[in-house]
Amino acid sequence: MSILVNEHTRLLIQGLGRDGSFQASKTIEYGTNVVAAVHPGREGSNFENKVPYFSSVEKAIDKTGANTGVIFVPAPFAMDAIIEQVDAGIDLIVCITEGVPVLDMIKIMSYIKDKPVRLIGSNCPGLLTPSTKTKVGIIPGNIVKQGNIGVVSRSGTLTYEAIAQLVQNGFGQSTCVGIGGDPVHGTTFTDILEMFQSDDETEAIVLIGEIGGTREQLAAEYIKKHVTKPVVSYIAGQTAPPGKRMGHAGAIITGKAALASEKNKALSNAGVHVVESPSDIGLRMKEIMR
User: Does residue 134 contact residue 110 with C-beta atoms inside 8 Å?
Assistant: First the structure.
């Protein structure tokens, strides 16, 4: 088993400009079942002579049975792309696009409420399941290894670092999920923690948080009540000055609860194995899983 994506994933890629085309190539190269590409003005041709282009998501689903969508369109058009995929009946939508306005994300979250769809992102690296070679987003396929550690992170590059540290210490991953670092996003830590807890293939979890907001405290509360599997966590931004945004739009200390120290305290009190450096993630997991 795995979570969210697997051998049944039929991927549609929307927005094949420079970055989208590069990532589409890497996704196909990794072995993911990419069935459709959606981009204006290209219907009737194929991406890399393999994947048919369509002018709309609805038409692409009708012809290919796509059930998962990844979005690379520019930020001003991301809301329309997400809504188009929702209305067309995509089950899982992953929005990689950075810089989507907060107001747009608030409108999107209101729109998808009570609809049978899951949104990951925006401003996220996506997700990847090594066992089925299923990559939806920008996580590099060459750094992962099949295994039983679930990874969930607000940070893209720290997702990669956590994976590298695990592999270096002999651990593979069940599924790796980057939920995004913006103030408003579709899927939370608790959503993914619930899935990993229910997944037979996942034996332990790595959680990467960062300063800003209280998502990690909510995760800690959920872990304390519902998660029986070992969790190792790292919080980025431990030396960040208050009021200064550190990379992500949501990575800003706006009050005591947003501090890395407060998040670490909450996670530690929930029984999580908190590390002070990302380089300690694999080593701590090795100690726990011996």
Answer: no
Domains along the sequence of the chain with CATH:
1-123 (3.40.50.720), 144-290 (3.40.50.261)
Residue 48 CA to its chain's centroid (Å): 26
What does the pLDDT average to over 3-16? 97
C-beta of residue 198 within 8 angstroms of C-beta of residue 1: no
Model confidence pLDDT, tens digit, residues 156-185: 889 999 999 999 999 999 999 999 988 899
* Residues identified as active-site: 248
pLDDT of 16 reads 97
Q: Please enumerate in sequence order all residues whose Cβ is within 8 A of that of 107, keeping only pairs 6 or more positions apart, or say none.
A: 79
Q: What is the pLDDT of residues 217-226, one digit of tens each?
A: 999 999 999 9
The packing angle between helices 156-168 and 281-289, to 10°, is: 50
For residue 122, cis peptide bond before it (omega within 30 degrees of 0): yes
Statement: residue 257 has pLDDT above 70: no
Q: How many residues does this entry show for the chain? A: 290
The residues facing 153 across adjacent strands are: 178, 208
Residue range 267-276: mean pLDDT, rounded: 96
State how far the Cα of 147 lies from the Cα of 173, in Å rounded to an integer: 4
Please report, for the chain, how many H helices and E strands are present, in that order: 9, 14
Torsion of CA 51, 54, 56, 61, to 10 degrees: -50
Nearest to 136 by CA among 283, 46, 32: 32
Residue with the two structure tokens 């807890």: 197
Alpha carbon distance 134, 10 (integer Å): 10
Give φ, ψ of 177 to 5 degrees: -130, 125
Q: Which of 139, 289, 287, 280 is nearest to 204 (CA)?
A: 289
